[in-house]
Design brief:
alpha/beta; 13% strand
């Protein structure tokens, strides 16, 4: 009877029928997949809903101010823009799932074969159990590990109250002390003031000091008097909320005066990302004359219209919606500021094929997948990068976002004039040569946020020393800040013997800005 009742087709798919161990493991893994997709989706949907609400509030007024034909064209273009984003996201999903499936499908079929034919090897029950462990690693262990990295990430100036050197209504000036034992600051050396990114935050420049991955500490560990400008909390500081570009320049001048008096030497100004562009504008304004004789800019956007990534993204927006008002919000004080969450979300939109929720989820799965026979720990660099991405978003003064907006919508003129005015005067790159400023531009060869062409725009007008670094936008502050890396910041590297920024600073003489 047993032979008569047996169904070959049923036997073939037996592992997928009934409440056997493989089926239970499969169900648990499936539920965790759904949980993960929901969690990653929420990270994307929260700023989407905020952006939609803000858009609706603005359009409640502007929609009725525009003629019908203009609204029809604008919304049609916006629909096309969103469709292109969705297509880009779908393409990213297919590519990522293809990479994931190319390995997992073969493993699944092998487990199925071993289960059906009772051969040696991983069984379906074990396969689905390993999937469940992997998903728990992504959904539970990974977020916990990211939270635990906080004490090791960043400056933590609250532990060093004596680091406060000066302050204005808008900024603190902090000294970065050496992180290496036995190193003392040489107050007779040429000092440097680092101007961090507004969007990325200052802590990215003190990435993992204990791991010797800290841009700022690369200078301090050479005995260089190293200082960094820290913006005060925008939510609690009215002066930051209403800050102008001129305020930025005046505060930078005050800090440079304090440091020059402290050390008796002119200052090297070092701006990272947007901090680099604002540093250039401050020097060109003339307010730092006699105080600054050298400049280092790292991955700084000098002409955003040359961008093939963010620049093209903004240009694809209908003109009616390419306005800072759609990314601003009103604080309790009544002052408008740029929303940091929405700005971070825009960067995600720009790279939907790389950073969309499902793409990010599957890539984290592949990254955190256990190697056969081992229980690998999660890399600290990965943890610190994710802590930075999750926790370093802050709102920005409108003047700062307007600086970027103007740069990404208006090119530098043929005579080198920037699309920025300060103190009622135009700014021109040629003034760098007139002021005898020794300038080093560092850029990332694979930077998709500030591309090479954007960072090197000044070369069309003046001679500037250039140092390219492999990898992307934050690699100079992370990978290459390690003293034993292939592009250590205090060394010469590459076929053209490029100087790292620390070496550049050490070899500058103050008298005329020439190389020692």
């Amino acid at each position: 009877m047993e032979d008569i009742d047996r169904n070959p087709k049923r036997d073939f798919f037996e592992p997928f029928y009934g409440w056997n161990p493989a089926k239970i493991a499969q169900l648990v893994a499936t539920l965790n997949y759904a949980k993960g997709m929901n969690a990653y989706g929420q990270d994307f949907m929260v700023p989407l809903l905020a952006a939609t609400e803000n858009f609706a509030k603005v359009e409640e007024v502007r929609f009725w101010e525009r003629p019908f034909h203009e609204n029809f064209q604008a919304y049609s273009e916006l629909l096309s823009f969103n469709y292109n984003l969705l297509s880009k996201y779908n393409q990213g999903i297919l590519e990522t799932l293809g990479q994931y499936g190319s390995h997992e499908l073969g493993r699944l079929l092998s487990a199925w074969h071993a289960t059906i034919f009772a051969t040696e090897g991983e069984k379906l029950e074990d396969y689905f159990a390993s999937q469940d462990r992997m998903l728990r690693r992504v959904l539970e262990e990974y977020p916990e590990a990211i939270a635990r990295i906080e004490p090791e990430y960043g400056f933590h100036f609250e532990r060093h109250p004596k680091s406060l050197i000066a302050e204005t209504d808008r900024f603190f000036l902090r000294q970065v002390n050496p992180s290496e034992e036995g190193v003392e600051t040489d107050n007779g050396m040429k000092p440097i003031i680092i101007v961090p990114p507004f969007v990325l935050g200052a802590n990215i420049l003190s990435f993992l000091p204990k791991e010797q991955k800290s841009y700022a500490h690369c200078f301090a560990n050479k005995g260089i008097p190293t200082y960094i400008r820290i913006m005060k909390d925008i939510d609690a500081t009215i002066a930051v909320q209403t800050m102008s570009l001129e305020d930025d320049a005046r505060d930078t001048k005050y800090f440079c005066e304090q440091i020059k008096a402290r050390h008796g030497r002119k200052v090297t100004l070092n701006g990272y990302c947007q901090g680099g562009f604002s540093s250039v504008c401050n020097i060109l304004s003339g307010k730092l004359d006699g105080l600054v004789d050298a400049l280092i800019t790292c991955v700084a956007p000098m002409d955003g219209t040359r961008s093939t990534g963010l620049g093209n993204f903004l240009r694809q927006l209908p003109d009616q919606f390419n306005d800072l008002v759609y990314g601003s919000k009103m604080l309790a004080s009544g002052n408008k500021v740029a929303s940091g969450d929405l700005m971070g979300w825009v960067y995600k939109l720009k790279s939907m094929d790389d950073s969309g929720p499902l793409v990010a989820f599957v890539r984290d799965i592949m990254m955190l997948k256990e190697k056969p026979g081992s229980r690998s720990s999660i890399n600290k660099t990965v943890l610190a990068l994710n802590y930075w991405l999750q926790n370093e978003r802050s709102d920005l003064p409108l003047s700062v976002t307007e600086l970027s907006y103007l740069s990404y919508n208006n090119p530098v003129a043929e005579d080198g004039t920037l699309p920025i005015t300060m103190f009622g005067e135009k700014l021109n790159f040629h003034a760098m040569k007139e002021k005898n400023i020794q300038w080093l531009i560092c850029y990332g060869e694979q930077d998709d946020l500030v591309e090479k062409e954007v960072a090197l725009a000044p070369l069309d007008f003046i001679d500037v020393e250039v140092t390219p670094f492999p990898k992307g936008h934050v690699a100079i502050a992370t990978s290459w800040s390690h003293p034993e890396s292939g592009c250590a910041l205090d060394t010469v590297f590459g076929e053209q013997s490029y100087r790292g920024p620390v070496l550049f600073h050490l070899e500058i003489t103050e008298d005329d800005g020439s190389v020692a």
